[in-house]
Amino acid sequence: MRKRMIADLNHRRITAADKQLMKRKIIIFTGAFFIISALLFQPDRFTVFGWIVTVDFQDHTCLPGHRIFLVNTWNRTPARGELFAFVSRRTGFFSDGQLMLKKMSALPGDFVSVSSDSTLVNGSVAARGLGAAEHAGADPALFVRSFTVGAEEYFMVGESYLSLDSRYFGTVHEEDLLGRAYIVY
């Protein structure tokens, strides 16, 4: 019986298709392991090999339709229009250290003008209105201002009308940037 089993194993050859299937199973298992670990051990974020997996549980997200993100902590190079993760500090709206995701709309030296109708960066529309102020019952006029973004500071904006972002809490310091973020789902 044992000789027959060995003979059967020797005759079975692993094909290229078998190898591809095994690779897919390993990738799926590994991905599932990291996602499940992320949800079990730290529901809003999980870090592995310089990447942060984060899940947005808000009712009103600043990036509508998107819930799961990857953050590359090795890539902190500022780039206008790109999605970045940062930690909140001194915002007055969020606890210090809370992970945030927004689009980088203005870089150092850019001119920003926030009005009740729109937010302009160097004359181009970056966001519409001050919906979060109106939604919260605050006077939008409290947030109207114009300024030049300082050195090592960035103006971050969400895509939602209700996004609490730099229109309300001001610029984000370079030291608070975690890295470039990518939408997963």
Task: Please provide a brief summary of the model.
This protein has 185 residues and is of the alpha+beta class.
Structure overview:
Strand 7 and strand 8 (about 125-130) form a beta hairpin. The chain has an eight-stranded antiparallel beta sheet, with helices on one face. It has helices spanning about 1-10, 15-40, 130-135, 165-170; strands at about 45-50, 50-55, 70, 85, 100-105, 110-115, 120, 125-130, 145-150, 155, 170-175, 175-185. It has about 180 residues and is of the alpha+beta class. The protein is built from four helices and twelve strands, in the order ααββββββββαββαββ. It has two domains: about 1-40; about 45-185, Umud Fragment, subunit A.
How far do the termini sit from each other? 52 Å
- Give the structural class: alpha+beta
Q: How much is the average pLDDT?
A: 82
CATH class of the largest domain: Mainly Beta
Rg value:
23 Å
Helix tally? 4
CATH topology grouping of the largest domain: Umud Fragment, subunit A
Following the backbone from N to C, one meets helices and strands in this order, namely: HHEEEEEEEEHEEHEE
The percentage helix is 10-25%
Tell me the β content.
Answer: 25-35%
Strand elements, count? 12
Backbone shape: elongated
What is the CATH H-level superfamily of the largest domain? Answer: Umud Fragment, subunit A
Strand order of the largest sheet: 1-2-3-12-4-5-10-11
- Which spans of ≥5 residues are poorly predicted at pLDDT below 50? none
The total domain count is: 2
- CATH architecture descriptor name of the largest domain: Ribbon
